[in-house]
Amino acid sequence: MKDLINRILKAFNIGGRDWAVLLLALLLAFSIWIIHNLSLKYNDYLTVPVQAYCNIDGHSSISSNTCDVVARGRTVGYKVLKFNLKGRRKAVTVEFSPSVMKHKEGDVYFLTSDALQEYTHLIYGSGVTIEYFVSDTLFYRFPDVDSRKVPVHPVYSLSFASQYMSDGQMNISPDSVYIYGEPNLLESISQVYTKPIKHSDLKSSVSGMAELEKIRGVRFSEKQVRYTIDVVRFVEMKSEVSVKCLNVPSDKRLMVYPSTVSVSLKCAFPLPAGFSSEPEIYVDYNDFIKSVSGKCPVRTGKLVSGIIDVDIDPVYVECVLEDR
User: What gap in Å lies between CA 60 and CA 163, rounded to an integer?
Assistant: First the structure.
């Protein structure tokens, strides 16, 4: 056999160096042939193991099992090879909407092949055309987890243009969410926070969506909340107002020092008809009898419509009780 090969090489005048070149050329041609064939599109059965992620109340968000999704599809050769190498397949985690997961029993949920259509690109990736799904129904187990309802605390930084301010607190919807996880984790969580909300030079009301700050090992019933900030234009009005004394017994007299305080009102613009710029300012006898030092907080009566904020200086006054 060796003599035959040598005769053939001698007949074609192929020497040692030419033999190496020939092998290299054959290897290159074979590589080009392989690449060409793998780049062509083929119809085949494609299999992908899928683990489900689904936000189901009272259950773990990740399924404890995986299911093989089998479909007849068309794609390039190298993808067909990748899908059908059983030892090389890696599970793909796909987030399914709770609306497509149907409850079977206990912690077992299922979805049908009809629901898989909109998740084709997540399961198989781009460049794959699915003709039909062979897998009819996929069953997933989502273990039960503990849950707790906690309030949402907005984290924000706001600045306003001159003569503008917020009309009340920031509104959050929903203002509370359910959290799921291990009992020892949930016990230490009293509230959850939004990611920082930042707005500057505000002249009008704004709203938007804010994501919740993640907590390791804990899942939220909502990933984000809607916030609203009501912004109004205001005018500032200052005045000196006498301090009244309320709820004083008829046989007593409460003396207040100082007897007047500076009041600064921030009022929504334009001012409503019949607006009064002097709110009722008073100290309460009930505060005095509870006080050790004799100092009482200065309070305001019911504010008329249009007043957004009130600043009083000083906020505490000295009180002296006398018999009549």
Answer: 50
